[in-house]
Protein: Oxidoreductase
Organism: Virgibacillus necropolis
Amino acid sequence: MNWKLFFKRNLNFGKRLVRIHHSNAILFLLLTITGFILFSSTFRSTFPSIRVDVKNIHIWIGFLSLLPILFYLPKITKHLKRLRKRMNHRTNLYAVLTILGLLIISGLFLTFHRTFPPFISSFMLFIHDLSTWVGIPYIVYHSITRSKWFKRFENNPPLNVPTSIEDHNPMLKRRTFMRKCTGGLLVVISLPFIGSWLKPYFPALGNLQGEVKANQFKPLPTPKPKSKPPIGGGRNGQFRYYTVTEMPTLTNENWSFIMDGLVEKSQTYRWKDFLKVGRDVQVSNFHCVTGWSVYDVTWEGIPLKRFLQEVGVKPEAKYVKFYSADGVYTDTLTIDQAMLDDVMVATLIDGELISKKNGGPVRLIVPKMYAYKSVKWLNRIELIDNEHVGFWEQRGYSKDAWVK
Ligand SMILES: Nc1nc2c(c(=O)[nH]1)N[C@H]1C(S)=C(S)[C@@H](COP(=O)(O)O)O[C@H]1N2
Ligand SMILES: [Mo]
């Protein structure tokens, strides 16, 4: 990288292009780093407090990355003319522009996703992921094969070999060989990532990782006829499984469910008694604030409204606080929000016991709000009179979680 270019004035056309190229490369590298941090589940659980900052930084760098493109666009015709005889360079240019364009447009939609319906965000997230998983290996390949050391290596003819430019020239062979190796290696490295990303979109590929139904609760609840087969016809889309701790392993022995605080009679349920509380079945959609959604999920569980009426809410109670068995995650609803018909303490999803990574055996669902409200491994509901701020809201998520 030639840093001096950034401080020089009156550069010629070629040097200006190089400067734009350098700026673009730096910004793209920063976007890749912050993007991977946001994607990483280790980061989600280790540094939850800076997640929102990293997201904002990623967005701002995204906006900055428009600048090199804006500077470049007026030069594009002249540049293309210069590349008239270099097909490879032209193809590369189109590829890079397409990748950047897709990333920027989908990034813009994701930044302002709350102004669009959720299906637009899911689509844009798909485009953002796709252009990341195709674009990054491509751009890494491009950077390696265009780097000075690669070229030096490539062009170092083996000793005593004539360097005439003709067919079967060993130098040319060496070049193609090295490029193919680099390309192959990159494909091999990126395949697992691309595979695990694509898999949910093709359920037919089967369960490569093997879904662990770690929740061995006995007795198993008997699904209602509306649950099995699910009246919603089975969910559309895939959950991305999130946790801010290690996923708690719950069993008949260590699991209990507490209903307490400002209620007429506090209750502690063991699994067997918990299953005696009447359940209902509903079909609803599930939206995460990061852009993905799962549609037509058939949930079976206790409608929160009825649950609260059964234990009797004291008039002083203003908020409902939800606790997770992970010991860390909490969230709240106002009494009015908690009384919405579709807020549910769910036990079955599409007729099956909710899996461990999906928040089972019991999780909250609040379909009209973003899923950070939907506490996983729910094991306690407390009625309180003072406001409580939930896990992600304490760390910068909006207190207004309504999906529009
Ligand atoms: N205990 C707990 N509940 C949680 C979370 C979490 O990290 N821990 N993440 C929330 C967020 S942001 C989302 S999008 C959903 C994700 O649910 P899933 O992991 O079943 O897909 O759970 C919500 N409930
Ligand atoms: Mo989320």
Observations:
- Residues 3-156+172-205 form a domain with the Fumarate Reductase Cytochrome B subunit fold (CATH 1.20.950).
